[in-house]
């Protein structure tokens, strides 16, 4: 049996606030830097989140040049490729950027600014994506299923996404479908209280599909715009994972034909290439439609966005840029590419 709760008063909130298994802070532990980042707008947030990558690229690429410029030959192209790899962008995207620079400048003496502009343009092209906006049902509620491995920042990302939608005036219901992890349920309950939305929970170890079904049911009942449902972040055996996720999707569709309308895969930007290999099973098993890239907060190498787009062929829909409630934004390829290399 599942239970739903309405908006909670501040005095009713549990204390202390737990962190999820990713180590990311829950709302009460939000970074004091979030307000400063918000003041700088999306570009400022992106620059802050990509500072590690920008340091790697900026320092390394500048080191390739002298005051009089640099001849683009095999030695230069090899050194450029090695520096691009250090951003976690992987061999494929780095190789395409190297080849673009070779095509445009081979045999010429070029200045740093020319190469930086070419790299930025190529990254922008590689990140072009269709269907970057969040899916929306023809009539509410829109049901969003969120999946990911343990430690990816999944529950925190749900909280941020919920805040993002609630701040736009949308009515929400959250579903605490990670019934095997009490901390996830508790943390999501705190998020719901802070945001002021309903939450459906189940007993410890309850069938996640039943929570998903009753969350969808509650969203229909109260006229919510969105139902956002958490899932267990476990990769036990691939067969069991697929069966569980397929069951969750099946019961949601039974209650609301065509749902879930969005299945978002949370990937941890700090995990680099490991995030990609860990999440391959989720991508196929859950029928993912988009990606939330979490923890792009200055400690990650943001180049990992490129191989994610390459390997999953899924749009990156949101990025987490810090620990605060406001620190999630819709992903914009143009802003990302510009922020990646701007000094």
UniProtKB/TrEMBL annotation:
<dbReference type="InterPro" id="IPR003593">
    <property type="entry name" value="AAA+_ATPase"/>
</dbReference>
<dbReference type="InterPro" id="IPR042101">
    <property type="entry name" value="SRP54_N_sf"/>
</dbReference>
<keyword id="KW-1003">Cell membrane</keyword>
<keyword id="KW-0342">GTP-binding</keyword>
<feature type="binding site">
    <location>
        <begin position="294"/>
        <end position="297"/>
    </location>
    <ligand>
        <name>GTP</name>
    </ligand>
</feature>
<feature type="region of interest" description="Disordered">
    <location>
        <begin position="1"/>
        <end position="43"/>
    </location>
</feature>
<dbReference type="Pfam" id="PF00448">
    <property type="entry name" value="SRP54"/>
</dbReference>
<keyword id="KW-0547">Nucleotide-binding</keyword>
<feature type="domain" description="SRP54-type proteins GTP-binding">
    <location>
        <begin position="315"/>
        <end position="328"/>
    </location>
</feature>
<dbReference type="InterPro" id="IPR000897">
    <property type="entry name" value="SRP54_GTPase_dom"/>
</dbReference>
<feature type="binding site">
    <location>
        <begin position="230"/>
        <end position="234"/>
    </location>
    <ligand>
        <name>GTP</name>
    </ligand>
</feature>
<dbReference type="InterPro" id="IPR013822">
    <property type="entry name" value="Signal_recog_particl_SRP54_hlx"/>
</dbReference>
<keyword id="KW-0472">Membrane</keyword>
<comment type="function">
    <text>Involved in targeting and insertion of nascent membrane proteins into the cytoplasmic membrane. Acts as a receptor for the complex formed by the signal recognition particle (SRP) and the ribosome-nascent chain (RNC).</text>
</comment>
<dbReference type="InterPro" id="IPR004390">
    <property type="entry name" value="SR_rcpt_FtsY"/>
</dbReference>
<dbReference type="InterPro" id="IPR036225">
    <property type="entry name" value="SRP/SRP_N"/>
</dbReference>
<comment type="subunit">
    <text>Part of the signal recognition particle protein translocation system, which is composed of SRP and FtsY.</text>
</comment>
<keyword id="KW-0963">Cytoplasm</keyword>
<comment type="similarity">
    <text>Belongs to the GTP-binding SRP family. FtsY subfamily.</text>
</comment>
<feature type="binding site">
    <location>
        <begin position="148"/>
        <end position="155"/>
    </location>
    <ligand>
        <name>GTP</name>
    </ligand>
</feature>
<feature type="compositionally biased region" description="Low complexity">
    <location>
        <begin position="18"/>
        <end position="40"/>
    </location>
</feature>
<keyword id="KW-0378">Hydrolase</keyword>
<protein>
    <recommendedName>
        <fullName>Signal recognition particle receptor FtsY</fullName>
        <ecNumber>3.6.5.4</ecNumber>
    </recommendedName>
</protein>
<keyword id="KW-0675">Receptor</keyword>
<dbReference type="InterPro" id="IPR027417">
    <property type="entry name" value="P-loop_NTPase"/>
</dbReference>
């Amino acid at each position: 049996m599942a239970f739903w709760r309405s908006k909670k008063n501040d005095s009713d909130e549990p204390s202390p606030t737990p962190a999820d298994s990713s180590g990311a802070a829950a709302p009460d532990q939000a970074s004091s830097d979030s307000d400063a980042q918000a003041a700088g707008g999306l570009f400022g947030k992106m620059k802050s989140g990509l500072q590690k990558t920008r340091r790697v690229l900026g320092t390394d690429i500048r080191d390739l040049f002298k005051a009089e410029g640099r001849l683009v030959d095999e030695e230069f192209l090899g050194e450029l490729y090695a520096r691009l790899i250090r951003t976690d962008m992987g061999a494929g995207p780095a190789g395409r950027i190297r080849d673009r620079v070779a095509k445009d400048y081979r045999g010429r003496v070029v200045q740093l600014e020319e190469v930086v502009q070419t790299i930025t343009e190529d990254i922008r092209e590689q990140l072009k994506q269709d269907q970057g906006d969040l899916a929306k049902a023809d009539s509410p509620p829109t049901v969003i299923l969120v999946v990911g491995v343990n430690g990816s920042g999944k529950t925190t990302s749900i909280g941020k996404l919920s805040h993002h939608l609630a701040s736009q005036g949308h009515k929400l219901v959250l579903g605490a479908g990670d019934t095997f992890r009490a901390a996830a349920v508790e943390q999501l309950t705190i998020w719901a209280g802070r945001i002021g939305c309903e939450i459906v929970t189940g007993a410890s170890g309850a069938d996640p599909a039943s929570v998903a079904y009753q969350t969808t049911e509650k969203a229909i009942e109260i006229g919510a715009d969105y139902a956002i449902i958490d899932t267990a972040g476990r990769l036990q055996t691939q067969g069991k994972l697929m069966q569980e996720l397929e069951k969750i999707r099946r019961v949601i569709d039974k209650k609301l034909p065509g749902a879930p309308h969005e299945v978002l895969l949370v990937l941890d930007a700090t995990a680099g290439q490991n995030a990609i290999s860990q999440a391959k099973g989720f991508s196929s098993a859950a029928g993912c439609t988009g990606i939330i890239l979490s923890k792009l907060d200055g400690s990650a190498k943001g180049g990992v966005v490129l191989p994610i787009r390459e390997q999953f062929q899924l749009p990156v829909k949101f990025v987490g840029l810090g620990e605060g409630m406001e620190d999630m934004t819709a992903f914009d390829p143009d802003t990302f590419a510009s922020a990646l290399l701007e000094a």
